[in-house]
Amino acid sequence: MTPHIHQRPLQAVLFDMDGTLVDTERLWWEAVEQVAGRPLTEADQPDVLGRPVEHTAAWLGTESGRPEVELAAELHREFADRVRTGIVPRPGALDLLDALAAAGVPAALVTASPRAVADVVLDALGADRFAASVTADDTARTKPAPDPYRAACRALGVEPAACVAVEDTETGVASAEAAGCAVLAVPSLAPIGTAPGRTVRDSLSGVTVEDLRHMVTPELRVMSWNLWLGGSEVDDHRAKQLKVVLESGADVVGLQETGGTAAQELAEALGWYHHRAGENLGVISRHPITARFGDPDVGFYGAAGVRIAVAPGREVDVWTAHLHYTPYGPYESAFDGLPARVLIAHEELRLAQMRDALARIAESSRDGVPVVLVGDFNCPSHLDWPDVAWPVTRAAEDAGFADSYREAHPDPAAEPGHTWSPIHPVHEDGSGRPEPQDRIDYVLHRGLTVRDARTLVTGSPRPWPDVADNDWPSDHAAVVTTFSLTRM
Q1: Is the separation of the CB atoms in 320 and 305 below 8 Å?
Q2: What is the pLDDT of residue 486?
């Protein structure tokens, strides 16, 4: 199976004007030279290229002592005269605009030039090619502030992260990236360096709509799943596990209770990559695994991790953990009535296991590489229980990990997110007592942006012990989080 990433649809393409769509950087340069009364040099570029008229006028005023208002008016006049007589579309610009229109992807013009100049260019290019336009007159701040690109996204009703901005200057690139857009940089007069989330091309010639789609911020869908003794309690469990993974849309799955061979068998059936750690832990991934972390001989409880190459220049570390199941806090609270201080004290073993996992993560981590920690922690979260500061999840939070489910669903009363247990409505000791339902499986992260998080149970599982025919081959719900891979 070819590795792939979940790709947010390309919602819009936002074009800078001067030097990007039309060859006006040269005209602007000539206009500034005319007003300055001298040739410009490379040292002048930061105050000329990509800057609004007011900035350049203020800069010239400092140099010449002339009033800024007078200089701005002269710059406007000189530039507009040149645009009317000398506008030339950049190579490939019109072809790309037409291709976007044919694909139904809206385009917007986002420029630091004033409205009067932008309207001249729009008339020359065909105003009907643009669904919106934002000029220096339309926002309180212009480039390099993010305001112009944010305003364009609002006008189009789109998300910045689902848009590509096309720019030709460092100033414009800074504006678009600050707004959260992916960037296609096509330098005109000054070079632009490469960076994660940024594509640099020499020209718009040959750029396709599909190229732009691939530039939109990719998404990574991560799942945590306890397979319940490898799934052995349910008939035809491996086929059912495969069906769940495929239907979840997961890109990478951190597994617990693998029964030794589940990670390898699932990965081979899917055509994925895998890592097996001991007899209980594993990770399967659509994306190549480039490194493996943790103790290869880890026991039934512990943690193991991998580094996956999600996209060019985009790596993510994914760890899976399984912590000891006893003593179990929800039982001690619901059945034994133990107070918070005792519940917390009884978390010592799991807390030690979590601290060991966090230490291993710290040892293997690399700057700029996000980390996801999933697992069956066998304990509730301090974010869910107002009266109990459960120390295991607190330790992860103190290490910089955020709880993706609670980021997406902040109110535990409205969205409890229970993962234990879809097959245990009553306690299995025969007493008939209701089983405490709680959230004990997690997808934590450090360095990513949460797009969505949910628990997953398919079908309508019959309760224990009549589970052999269940479509859902586990006693835990899974947790599935979709992350946006922001720039690193």
Answers
A1: yes
A2: 62
Residue 179 tokens, joined = 């707004």
Helix pair angle (237-248, 262-270), 10° resolution? 60
279 confidence band (pLDDT: 50, 70, 90)? very high
pTM over 0.90? The answer is no
Are residues 408 and 479 in contact, defined by beta-carbon separation less than 8 angstroms?
Answer: no
3-state secondary structure the chain: CCCCCEECCCCEEEECCECCCECCHHHHHHHHHHHHCCCCCHHHHHHCCCCCHHHHHHHHHHHHCCCHHHHHHHHHHHHHHHHHHHCCECCCHHHHHHHHHHHCCCEEEECCCCHHHHHHHHHHHCHHHCCEEECCCCCCCCCCCCHHHHHHHHHHCCCHHHEEEEECCHHHHHHHHHHCCEEEECCCCCCCCCECCEEECCCCCCCCHHHHHHHCCEEEEEEEEECCHHHCCCCCHHHHHHHHHHHHCCCEEEEECCCCCHHHHHHHHHCCEEEEECCCEEEEECCCEEEEECCCCCCCCEEEEEEEEEECCEEEEEEEEECCCCCCHHHHHHCCCCCHHHHHHCCHHHHHHHHHHHHHHHHHCCCCCCEEEEEECCCCCCCCCCCCCCHHHHHHHHCCCEEHHHHHCCCCCCCCCCCECCCCCECCCCCCCECCCECCEEEEEECCEEEEEEEECCCCCCCCCCCCCCCCCCCCCEEEEEEECCCC
Among the listed residues 362, 219, 353, 364, the one whose alpha carbon sits nearest the alpha carbon of residue 281 = 353
16 is catalytic: yes
Range scoring the smallest mean pLDDT among 3-7, 152-156, 302-306, 447-451: 3-7
| Residue tagged active-site, from 16, 44, 317, 438 | 16
Pairing of strands 107-110, 132-134: parallel
pLDDT per position as a tens digit, 360-416: 999 999 998 999 999 999 999 999 999 999 999 999 999 999 999 999 999 999 999
- Give the rounded percent of residues in the chain with a pLDDT score beyond 90: 78
> Which is higher by pLDDT, 52 or 186?
186
CB neighbourhood size of 129 (10 A): 18
Q: Known catalytic residue: 475?
A: no
Q: What is the pLDDT of residue 8?
A: 57
> In this structure, what are the phi and psi dihedrals at residue 89, rounded to the nearest 5 degrees?
-60, 145
Q: Cβ(442)–Cβ(224) under 8 Å?
A: yes
Of the candidates 18, 138, 251, 376, the residue annotated as catalytic is: 18
Neighbours of 348 (CB within 10 A): 11
